[in-house]
Amino acid sequence: MGWSFLLEAILLPDTGKGERRTRLRTIRLPESLERALEKEATDEGSTVNAEINSTLSQHFVWDKKAKEFGFASIHKTLLTSMLEGLDDEMLARIGREVMTPLWKEMAEYWSQDSSPDGILNHLMDRSRFNPHHQTRITREENTYTVVLRHDFGPKWSILTKNALQELVRQSFHTEPQITAGESVVTAHFKVNPRKSPT
What we know:
It contains 6 helices and 6 strands, in the order ββαααααββαββ. By secondary structure, it is of the alpha+beta class. The chain folds into 2 domains: 2-69, no CATH class; 76-190, no CATH class.
């Protein structure tokens, strides 16, 4: 048996002034779902309203578009086992020739911005919805530090390192200082400011 539940859903995230407008909606939920939401909210130290907003946001901002874009789910154990079967040279080539263009396409598809900063912003944005990939970007004047953390082992680091290196070369026209560990890839690079037209 369903029950009525008041949901303050975020419908328009930006009004042009950085404000978030909300609208009040009444929806009917099964009691089992209501209990699950309350438990999730308690476990996360959140509210039912926040949990519903988070779930809806993830669906529309990430899950729906990921499905349309062609993402396929694969278990982490299976992925890491498949990676172990590839030599380092093949992984490096896949990073440069497949992952780098894919990042650009994803940025264009999700945010219609495949500029260099747009691609980096997309990598950081997707971290909100993918616990297996985390991206941190800092920029001080013209110096960037990009840190990519993942849960897929050293083989994925090889792939990611080469993808990031190629992205910086192609998009920022500079050579990054890049390091790769078992689960973290870090790139430092400086971009020369463009000269003002005379």
